[in-house]
Amino acid sequence: MRYIPNSPEERAEMLKTVGLNSAEELFDSIPIGLRIREQLKTPPAISEMELIAGFEELAARNTAAHRPSFLGAGAYSHYSPTIVDHLISRSEFFTAYTPYQPEISQGTLQAIFEFQTLICQLTGMDVANASMYDGSTALAEAVLMAERVTRRKKVITSAAVHPEYLEVADTYVQHYGIELKLAETDAQTGLISAEGLNELDEQTAALVVQSPNFFGCVEDVRALAERAHAVGALLIVAVTESISFGFLRSPGACGADIVVAEGQSFGVPVSFGGPFVGLFATRDKYARQLPGRLVGEAFDKQGRRGFVLTLATREQHIRREKATSNICTNEGLIALAATIYMETMGRCGLQEVAEQCAQKAAYAARSIARLENFSLPYSAPRFNEFVVRAPIEAKELLSRLGMEKNITGGLALSRYYKDRPNDFLVCATETNSRKEIDALVAGLESIAS
Amino acid sequence: MRYIPNSPEERAEMLKTVGLNSAEELFDSIPIGLRIREQLKTPPAISEMELIAGFEELAARNTAAHRPSFLGAGAYSHYSPTIVDHLISRSEFFTAYTPYQPEISQGTLQAIFEFQTLICQLTGMDVANASMYDGSTALAEAVLMAERVTRRKKVITSAAVHPEYLEVADTYVQHYGIELKLAETDAQTGLISAEGLNELDEQTAALVVQSPNFFGCVEDVRALAERAHAVGALLIVAVTESISFGFLRSPGACGADIVVAEGQSFGVPVSFGGPFVGLFATRDKYARQLPGRLVGEAFDKQGRRGFVLTLATREQHIRREKATSNICTNEGLIALAATIYMETMGRCGLQEVAEQCAQKAAYAARSIARLENFSLPYSAPRFNEFVVRAPIEAKELLSRLGMEKNITGGLALSRYYKDRPNDFLVCATETNSRKEIDALVAGLESIAS
Amino acid sequence: MNSTNITKATSHITQNESLIFERSQTGRKGYRLPPLDVEETPLDEIVPASLRRDDDLEGVPEVSEVDVVRHFTRISTWNYSIDLGMYPLGSCTMKYNSRLNEKVARIAGFANLHPLTPEEDAQGALQLIYELQESLSEITGLSGISLQPAAGAHGEMTGVMIIRAFIDARDGAGASANRRTMLIPDSAHGTNPASANLSGFTVKTIRSTADGFTDLDHLRELCAHGDVAGLMLTNPNTLGLFEKNIKEICQIVHDAGGLVYMDGANMNALVGVARPGDMGVDVIHLNLHKTFSTPHGGGGPGCGPCCCTKELEPFLPVPRVVKDGDKFRLDSSRPQSIGRVKAFFGNFGMMVRALAYIQTHGPDGLREATEAAVLNARYVAQGLVSDYDKPFEAQPMHEVVFTDKRQSRKGVHTLDIAKRLIDYGFHPMTIYFPLIVQGAMLIEPTESVGRAELDQFIEAMRSIAREALEDPETVLNAPHSTRIGRLDEAAAARRPVLRWKPKEAASAA
Amino acid sequence: MNSTNITKATSHITQNESLIFERSQTGRKGYRLPPLDVEETPLDEIVPASLRRDDDLEGVPEVSEVDVVRHFTRISTWNYSIDLGMYPLGSCTMKYNSRLNEKVARIAGFANLHPLTPEEDAQGALQLIYELQESLSEITGLSGISLQPAAGAHGEMTGVMIIRAFIDARDGAGASANRRTMLIPDSAHGTNPASANLSGFTVKTIRSTADGFTDLDHLRELCAHGDVAGLMLTNPNTLGLFEKNIKEICQIVHDAGGLVYMDGANMNALVGVARPGDMGVDVIHLNLHKTFSTPHGGGGPGCGPCCCTKELEPFLPVPRVVKDGDKFRLDSSRPQSIGRVKAFFGNFGMMVRALAYIQTHGPDGLREATEAAVLNARYVAQGLVSDYDKPFEAQPMHEVVFTDKRQSRKGVHTLDIAKRLIDYGFHPMTIYFPLIVQGAMLIEPTESVGRAELDQFIEAMRSIAREALEDPETVLNAPHSTRIGRLDEAAAARRPVLRWKPKEAASAA
Ligand SMILES: Cc1ncc(COP(=O)(O)O)c(C=O)c1O
Ligand SMILES: Cc1ncc(COP(=O)(O)O)c(C=O)c1O
Q: E strands, C172-215, where?
């Protein structure tokens, strides 16, 4: 096996050195009865050439991967500068472990420190951790953290949070006696409804909203923060499209207590849903309640600056069952990719790309709204996603759009909401050319008529 | 411009620092009349996204790049392990200059030393240089070197040397009063003809042969060496398919005095003809007549081993017009790729891949020979290329094969030999599956009948 | 410090580099976007100013592409990595990460595939997931596989929740309410109790015996109260020892009405040799980022598949990838499922790599890797036993634990030995884990190290042992060869500085 | 040596690594091929044993893939590189090499395209070559372009041969035989005379004036004999000065019946600002691996396009890439051509990168780069003039030359200053070139360096100047921070060891 340095000859000699006659004897401590006799029935060994051919073939069967696409809903197609993938592929980053030995891990540690800083700057918060698995688990952990901070058990979550995020939160909190109450979405605005907010009371640990929400509508976060704080609840803001940070008022500036987000938009491929990177930020006063890893500044005897993993007493390897979370391995390399993306785009680029997304979506929305029998049900301001109401079943419409026009037109909301057969969610980014958008509009028109 | 660190603001400040008011003043030493007034008419600046799209489009118009191919004739499609491209892409190799400062260039220097060693091992020679531009220029330089060594002006070259190599040699030697005499190819064997060899005499500086020759035939190098040495001439052996070193007796073992080769087969893409890498090896006694760079072992005051560029007194930067060659920049990174390839394949792999090429070609030759009205004109043993004589014009036959069967079937010899309309050269490597070969054979049959 | 015994490393010049924020210069740009090709809409019509960002991203760096490339290239050189040499972190299985796997994971048909693509347009990805499930099922001997968990701890949480759901279903809400105890050995990794807690279990700790195994008597005793939902066991355990009584252990737990969860982080000792499913284990997680070589990336991403018995399958997270004839689809209608543990389908990119690993090795190669990994650990164990205290008699599997007992007499402790190892050119082993071994040094060479380097490692450790006797100061002040020395972690935790701030702001704070 | 002035670099641990041959172990394998899928032919039937290899590749290494990856990753860390920082090698234009260019050069449609593909199936590649020719023609102001030469020296040879062919055609064999003199300034790069010699010319050297320009009187004198075929001039010259009399120089040579060849290695000072074609130059070569940022790769590959006037076009190498309507084809039927200088079409992969560079910059960006490059050189010139001898008054263009005159009084020479610069974290400048300047230090920062690093460089040089006075020993023994010290190059040349040999063989030899 070409990945194993020691040749069979060398291994035979080493066996002798350790006093064994055969490789089988290495496993003497495993009861004979538990050792498998015959070979595993996994696929036979193949060469690089064959393997690449096989995977290319599989990939070719993902017919959607090569079409213009308007799918968003939690995973966004943005352009990633070439240097991002190049730099994360440096062996020194990519084949290193979690930086347990700071003297030979400063590269990773400094990068995480920069990541934490950038996330604070974008979210407008005081402190951010080294990453969570993704946005959905970050949200679930935020709810658990709110319970730790407030010692309250009731959590109001907007129904316009990504449905899969809600499912994950349900799974995480089910054994904590936390009840998640849904606040309905206003059918006219597409924002969290007034009735929903009336659920807020002195037992409420947190109000959870997503903005831009799942339907692409931008919530008035400041107003929501006031409502939550009025009853002593925390405001948790979830963001699935992190590019929006370059355009919308930061949750921190609006009074959010915890901000969680999906960082995939920062130069990470959609890659069928993962690996992504969860962003988690909060206020200084809650720093010691944070889940996950934190990197901090430190100095050596000669006063040289370096960085270390810190506040580890929150973590499982020390606190065990009393830890703030069970997370250990997180999404280091993806956080690094996001860091490189953010720094490459920089202060101007992060704003320009966000504005382009908003402009493309505005253009697309305007064009689709003009189509006969198509409408945009929601009135709230939007960033780069919006719901379209079609004259026919959206699932059918979109699959024909794919087959006949080779365009992935968006997400049929019936995937999550059985009662919304004709609605679909359209997302536009800087990667969607005007030509693509016009083709989408023409396609919708021709198929629906 | 994103590749220029200093912002316009910073550059304005720096201009002040150096006492200038405008960038234009930087060019005051250029007479006004010589400065261009208007902008260059080169293409407008575009973004990464646009650039990649544009190049993908161009590449797509190279329709042949994605077909099964049996083209060889000086450029060969072999499988290159993934690590080759990964390792040469390490910034430390790929953005370094020629190793003029050994203390901070040992990576490059050690790699070249290993390259020189491997080339010696494969060619069976004593000493090899750090690379030439390619096989063709290496051959030309070999002829010039033979003249330096022997002080004779007449050179006999086999007519079965790659035609483009012969053209390049012509260009290089034309002003040296060296006459290149062609030794005809035996129409029956495909090897250099007896008559041709009779040209050898006491005025002959060198006999130049290629083996396997342009027609794929393996010359009896030992016998040729004896003939050349008998008249005090050098034997120069050129090799276009370096994979053959893993299978055929090394030129060194056969008595060659200079071996030149094209190293592209060692893990380097065919890339429309370049960059490739020229290999150049000779006997110890001629070391100081070598063109190009040489790396040698050296030690520092504490006796630590390192490597340096050595025997520089042969080179242009010291010897100027008396140098053994004008070469300066060579093919460092490609030589590195070849080194990584040779070391990854190693002792067994270099032999196995060579044998597979020979086996595939033997199978293809056998199958084509069976076809009605097709024949193989040459009787000599072959490695992985052979000439086929078709019943119809080869150019026509091959272009139909391409269009109708999507196979590039080989090289119509009429490209170089107007008098051989029906002959074409077929090459098989380890990358040609049996399926491809069978499709080629079937295609030839159906089109020719 | 220049010990003549240091054969693996030498100091050399490396570049300094400040924080990117300190490099930033107004007006620098590292990007270029295509010009906007649609009519502009006035921003106020898109989103009112009151909801728009108004800080112009104050503080976010402004740098050129060249700045970014040099910044990260430079700081990268401050890291140790697998590609630079042996990385013997016990329990972490730092094996070779093939570049081939990286290449296939980047094939556009995978990288550009959106997770919400309709099934019929994503058949290749679904098939890949399905094939990986099949291989992992064969390797573990467990039929139910979910690739959704993003890491080991996530897989633990999933597995433990499955146990809970199963018991609830089996015993009914009422009865099951009294089964909320999860037994965990004192040697277990911290994620185990944390995951159990996350699933609402009370953790009870099982003692290990003096010779490093689960204490069966204590287990029986704890199982006697009828409140045991399950046991979380690592096998081989975190001491590198195979729990030879595993079958009996499972029996005891099963008899007590509990289920057995196996932490599969140490599967690198078992692949192709023995299967948890055959041992009586009910549910297990794997770390594809350990055993199956997906790169650890300085802290993830990972992938922690949860594998369980047929009996537990109904409780696996949704959606599941299933095969209908020759089509693949997502199955979400599984009423007993514990629910979703992550958006979409898990870390797909890691699955691509893991399948490439399995196909590259083949059955023989998988077993060969296991043999080589165990052999390397044995070789190291034998090489060090003369100089270091080996607290357990039993022969180790893929990793071996030593202690600083002998060296500490001279005041040299595990931390010092680890730091000194850096000067010898090695990444230190895992230290102070497992917690039950005082001054533990857990060494896992993996199969990816050749004999010559193992010998260098053994020689380095022996040399350090000599230094501990003859020249303890050198060891206590190590490392001596690095850009920075030991950092004051206590101070860092006392006044944590967790982000960069502009000078003024910083001093203001 | 730890000078507090060293702000850019610090020593850190790096891995040692032996020669791969010393790592080799019998039986190790780093590859796997698909099984042979055709019936085997007995080897003797393919090639008789007498012609087959019989040494089993004795001595070729046997290593695993992991060995190879660690081997090259480790030794790579011993190199300095552009991505690590400023690389001010005068005359070499070590600018940023964009990864974007690497990506497009690797597109399968380019990388897998065979050079002997029929024209109709390679239209994309031919178009790319054509478009690059057009851009280079616009940039140089010369209409005839051949991309065939593989490097600068190769382009020189091509250009000089074109001059010779032109003169032969113009004057006829007889007369032209008396025009075999090529004039070359004493400041020229060594490749110039070497290339002239390769084309059968006798080289006569032109003096430079005290202020660093071509000596017009000497030029006139040399032109008086009627034997001058041409002049090879570098502009800006190798002292970094623009030959302000270029038009007059060309006039003198033309009047004498000669042609003017310009070495374009220094085009980074002119792109977008001035064009050789407008100066009266007849033929020039470019270094795409300098001015157009194709990576130097530790010694190539390069690409040295030859650009000439309309008049000289007929003599360019064959084949040429031409456009017929909207099709592109190869034109080989050019009777006056000097012939072919390389197999196939030159280093195509470098052409892809260069065109990407041109399209990424656009006209403005190309000029901006030139301005930034010249400004950086000026900035350094100004920063160092107080501490180092600047032999020429004139303002430098993209590079500036200093000497060790002041330092040498203390016995500190250019080589020592260069070596000491390594300790400060910089790659040294070009030293002892041009030859006419005693103790020359030729500094070319390029546009790819930011002000902060330029300031560090200036500070480092000044600090070294101070050390030369106060502590010359430190400078004379530099570098102090590297894995190895200065190597004994004289000894290496005396008894050259140019390849590894197995121990026995080695000692035997
Ligand atoms: C024994 C053991 N269990 C569980 C884990 C947790 O796995 P992960 O870090 O992927 O969450 C680890 C990894 O550190 C481990 O070593
Ligand atoms: C002024 C000058 N001319 C010619 C050359 C030769 O170019 P190349 O090394 O590409 O052959 C160089 C490069 O070193 C140079 O600096």
A: 181-185, 202-206
Q: Does ligand 1 have an atom closer than 6 angstroms to the CB of C302?
A: yes
Give the single-character DSSP code of B132. B
Å from C346 to nearest chain A CA? 6
Contacts for A327 with CB less than 8 Å, ≥ 6 apart: A132, A133, A141, A291, A292, A293, A316, C151, C153, C154
Strand pairing report for C228-234 and C181-185? parallel
* Mutation choice for D interface testing from A3, A4, A7 by most D CBs within 10 A: A7
Beta carbons within 10 angstroms of residue B370's beta carbon: 10
Using a CB–CB cutoff of 8 Å, tell me whether B331 touches chain D: yes
- Closest Cβ opposite residue A93 in set C46, C298, C340: C298
In this structure, the number of other CB atoms found within 10 A of the CB of residue C388 comes to: 24
pLDDT beyond 50 at C509: no
Nearest to A292 by CA among A282, A302, A307, A304: A282
Burial of C5 per CB tally in 10 Å (0-12, 13-18, 19+): middle
Q: Is C13 on the interface with A (CB under 8 A)?
A: no
Cα dihedral sign, A118-A124-A127-A131: negative
Contact status of A45 with chain D (Cβ, < 8 Å) = yes
Q: In three state form, how does the secondary structure of A243-263 look?
A: HHHHCECCHHHHCCCEEEEEC
Q: Output the pTM of the full model.
A: 0.98
D13: exposed, middle or buried (Cβ count in 10 Å: 0-12, 13-18, 19+): buried
Number of alpha carbons in the 13 Å side-chain half-sphere of residue A182: 13
Which candidate in D1, D6, D13 is best for mutational testing of the C interface (most C CBs within 10 A)? D13
pLDDT of residue C248: 97
Is-contact C259 C229, C-beta < 8 A? yes
Q: Is C189 in the pocket of ligand 1 (CB under 6 A)?
A: yes
Q: Quick one: tokens of A105? A: 């891990």
The one-letter amino acid code at C278 reads D
Give the residue ranges of chain B where pLDDT is below 70: none
Enter the tokens of residue D351: 């052409």
- Contact with chain C for residue D450, Cβ under 8 A: yes
The sign of the torsion formed by the CA atoms of C366, C367, C370, C371 equals negative
Asked whether the beta carbons of A237 and A251 are under 8 A apart, the reply is: yes
In the structure, what pLDDT confidence band is assigned to residue C507 with cuts at 50, 70 and 90? low
Rounded distance, CA B353 to CA B384, Å? 11
Residues 6+ apart with CB under 8 A from B285: none
Tell whether the torsion through CA atoms of A15, A20, A21 and A27 is positive or negative: negative
Give the one of B48, B81, B431 whose C-beta lies nearest to A81's C-beta: B48
CA D61, CA B129: separation in Å to the nearest integer?
A: 19
Ligand 2: residue whose CA is nearest its atom 5: D152
Q: Whose CA is nearest to atom 14 of ligand 1?
A: C92
The conformation of residue A23, written as its DSSP 8-state character, comes to G
User: Looking at beta carbons, which residues of chain B come within 8 Å of D274?
Assistant: 27, 30, 34-36
CA-to-CA dists, residue C7 to A379, B74, B288, angstroms: 70, 45, 36
DSSP assigned state of D267: G
Pick the closest to residue A390 from A363, A367, A415, A371 (CA basis).
A371
In this predicted structure, the answer to whether residue D509 has a pLDDT above a threshold of 90 is: no
User: pLDDT for D330-366, tens place per residue?
Assistant: 999 999 999 999 999 999 999 999 999 999 999 999 9
Asked if the C-beta of A440 comes within 8 angstroms of chain C's C-beta atoms, the answer is no
Question: Who contacts B60 (Cβ-Cβ below 8 Å, separation ≥6)?
Answer: D109, D124
Q: Which residues of C touch B4 (CB under 8 A)?
A: 64, 66
Provide the angle, in degrees to the nearest 10, between the axes of the packed helices D123-140 and B48-60: 130
Nearest of B232, C194, C254 to residue A319 by alpha carbon: C194
Phi, then psi, of D320 in degrees rounded to 5: -105, 150
